[in-house]
Give the backbone structure.
Amino acid sequence: MDGGVMPDLEFTVTQSEPRRILATTGSAPSQPEVSAVVGPLFGAVASAIERSGGRLGVGVATYAMGPDGGIDIVAGFEWDADPLPGLSVVDLPNVLVASTTHYGVMATIGDSWSALMRWAADEGFFPAGPGREIYHESSSPDQSTWVTELQQPIARR
């Protein structure tokens, strides 16, 4: 691993699984500010779930360019119950995605996203919806052990 990114990322085109998440939203003015926004969003949802006696599911976030040029973020955890106060249940549909897995620190996840987007464009696809991150392993304080699936909804050119 070099700088928190696997040197040989594998890319696939597949149908995503539909996911229902309990989430909250926020926005960041640009990419460098995303981590300062998304962490507290996840924290707010996790606290609400824990206060309700529920268990945290898999973490999921979506990222889309906002009308003001910022990044609109939806962050939460897989959920199969009614919404909790102040939070929304968001259904992410089954869609065609370009996908790869990022291993390691969040500081280098942009490199994996860039590689995925270049690969998808080279294969004749364009983005067709907000990018998704599925946090398969993110519970350790040591981010070098984290496993994050990147999914970009796509359509053929």
In short: The first strand starts at residue 12 and ends at 15.
